[in-house]
Amino acid sequence: MPGSAGVNGGIAELVLSAGPVAKFVLILLAVFSIICWALIVEKWWEFRKIRVESLRFVRVFREARRFSLVYAAAKKHRESPLAQLYLAGGQEVAATLGGAEIADRVLEEADEGLPPDRLDAVNRAMRRAAGVEIERMERYLPFLATTASSAPFIGLFGTVWGIMTSFQNIGAQGSANLAVVAPGISEALIATAAGLGAAIPAVMGYNFYVNRVKYWASEMDGFSLDLLNAFARSVQKAAR
What we know:
Layout (H helix, E strand, L loop, with lengths): L1 H7 L2 H6 L3 H44 L3 H10 L4 H17 L2 H10 L6 H22 L3 H33 L4 H62 L1
Helix pairs in contact: 1-9, 3-8, 3-9, 4-5, 5-6, 5-7, 5-9, 7-9, 8-9
């Protein structure tokens, strides 16, 4: 019997001897699993660049005393969400004061400051930039969530189909011995294992990266408040 070879052989031989429905289920789960692992690695690399570039930008932000220097550094660190927030707010400041060089003089000497309505515009610009950055960091995460939720059910479908095949073999041969039942049950269990193998890394990767998005969203909120406070102090100095 073809199924007997699958029982006596390895998993690969059992997969090759499976029926067309079971093979389709296993191929589909394999595609899901490969894509998920590729996305997990890609997101890991993306968040690594975000962390590295954010640390570099924050160092420049803390050490530099001139608006134009920090503004230029923000343009170089495209992967940092904090840099993109500063760039969005800095564009409003530069547009209001007539350029980055003029903003240097205004913010340092406090001869004049941002009016309250422009300060609100800076806040709105940074909020828009934060939304864009969160959307960028959440890219591809829905696929991981979809795989985590659907892969076990796809594997369950393969399991049910394998059990149905086993009962059909029992009815066709009129025998319920192990040689008749085992191939279909083994085929069913492989589908279940494949579904779990695709879902477990997906759900772990999804939860991990969702937490990283939340972390950077919190960092962006704090950075926005720090930046608004810095501009507000300039306004208050100018008012005096």
